[in-house]
Design a protein that fits this description.
It is a single chain. With about 130 residues, the chain is an all-alpha fold. The longest helix has 21 residues, at about 80-100. The chain has helices spanning about 5-20, 40-50, 60-75, 80-100, 105-125.
Length: about 130
């Protein structure tokens, strides 16, 4: 648990001890997680079918692929593996940028790459 999570957990425990959560609206009632009131009525059935089938929007799937590629890059043990994972990550990031109708932000990507390189260097130094 990182420092921020630790502080958040401590504040939640303190608020519980003070009883700040005792009178919240909906206390003891199940959460309404499937609230589709923002979806137009004519699309609700179709969205529900897609959701139940496990279909996600293309950007969500692409973000999952990016997370997987990042994991492969972090797990790579050889220069060839890192290069292959890096190429795959570049490709996926380009697809994400194109799907948003824009171009890639080189400055942001360089900062991102620097962070990845630092993580890889820490991993290799162990």
């Amino acid at each position: 648990m990182n420092f921020i999570e630790h502080i958040a957990e401590q504040r939640i425990r303190d608020a519980l001890a003070r009883g700040e959560f005792d009178r919240l609206p909906g206390l003891g009632k199940p959460l309404q997680l499937d609230d589709d009131s923002a979806v137009p009525p004519e699309l609700r059935v179709a969205y529900r079918i897609l959701k139940n089938a496990g279909v996600v929007p293309p950007e969500v799937e692409l973000r999952r692929d990016i997370a997987t590629a990042e994991g492969l890059l972090m797990a790579a043990t050889t220069a060839d593996e890192r290069a292959e994972a890096g190429r795959k990550l570049d490709y996926l990031l380009t697809r994400l940028a194109v799907s948003r109708g824009g171009s890639r932000n080189v400055a942001l990507e360089n900062a991102y790459r620097e962070q990845l390189a630092q993580k890889l260097n820490r991993k290799e130094s162990r």
